[in-house]
Amino acid sequence: MTNHRLIALPLIMVVALFATWSGYWYLTLNGVRKPTNSALEGRIAGWQLTCGTRDWGGYPFRIRFTCHNATLVHVTGQELRLTRLDALAQAYNLDHVIAIMTGPAVLRPETGAKEETYRHDPATASIRFQDGLLHQVSVLATNVTGKAMGGEPFRLERINLHARFDTAEDKVLLAAELGKLSLANRPSGSVLLDAAVLNGELAPRPRQLPDRWKEGLRLLAQEQVELSIAQLVLKWPDLSVTADGQARMSPDGFLTGRFKTRTDNLKSTIARLESAAVISGKDAKTASTVLGLFGGRGEISVGLRIEKGDIYWGPVKLGRHPPLF
What digits encode the pLDDT tens for the residues 15-37? Predict the structure, then answer.
């Protein structure tokens, strides 16, 4: 009899552990489901999510929320539709949420505007919280295809965005990476960009997250938030450009800043600025002559300055940007 009890003891312990964990999982699920369903009735940062159908699951180790035929509508009239949106977290760590966005994504920039369809591999977002506050966000999308603002079909190999909110040092760390960007209808010279990398920070950390992005930019200007770029790299098959520096916005929406740029092919850099209609043919010749005095036609370092919206690359004025808000 004693031997039978000893044999049954491990089984009893497993059943008790299973029952305890199941109870914990269902309590955790209910603790997440109720506030989430309530939050979906309102707006978060100006966005409201509606679902054709909602599913909850993930047992035994995860909490999973699935929104089929998801529609995100912003107070400004922007609308984004996805085939499916999943949010997952480990039942024992709800501070780390993984979101999976299944396309195609249908975007309407504003009320009454034409919709554009973007196809992509399932995109992922990693969202971390710390002490109840947003701490870190990373988004990755690959093989993105659609139409650019000019109407030409494009393909973006990869886009990876990252932001970390550092409350101790009162700043936001930023990083971005782009893969090859090309136009589908241009077999010859269709590559607009081979790769791009950005590392920088915003300081001090913005205190609010307004519903409208222009309100957010105005807030950055009011709080005198500075953008510091530690590394910006742009690469083409025949050219590489790097930059670093700082900029901030004035209360009227114009940028002011100083950057140091470096190019390994001055001739190709000027040719690309001219082909993009950033500078005229006359200015291209002037830039080639003047800047060539400093570094020849190969590698050269040139200062880029922005003075209340006016943009200068060395002695050449590239143009003036419109107010950002």
Answer: 888 899 999 999 999 999 988 88
pLDDT at 203 (0 to 100): 96
Residue 108's DSSP bridge partners are 79
Q: What is the domain partition of the chain in residue ranges?
A: 1-129
The total number of residues written for the chain in this structure = 325
pLDDT tens-digit map of 157-186: 999 999 999 999 999 999 999 999 998 776
Token output for 234: 């742009």
Q: Are 202 and 190 in contact (CB under 8 A)?
A: no
Report residue 187's pLDDT band, with 50, 70 and 90 as the boundaries: low
CB 123 within 8 A of CB 100: yes
CA–CA distance, 311 with 320 (Å, rounded to integer): 6
d(CA 255, CA 220): 11
Kindly report the average pLDDT of the chain as a whole number. Answer: 90
Contact 317, 310 (CB under 8 A): yes
Could you tell me if 98 and 66 are in contact, meaning their C-beta atoms sit under 8 angstroms apart?
A: no
Q: Which of 202, 192, 197 is nearest to 242 (CA)?
A: 197
* CA distances from residue 195 to 149, 154, 157, 172 in whole angstroms, order as listed: 20, 15, 9, 24
Q: Is the pTM of this model over 0.85?
A: yes
Dihedral angle over CA of 77, 206, 220, 99, nearest 10: -40
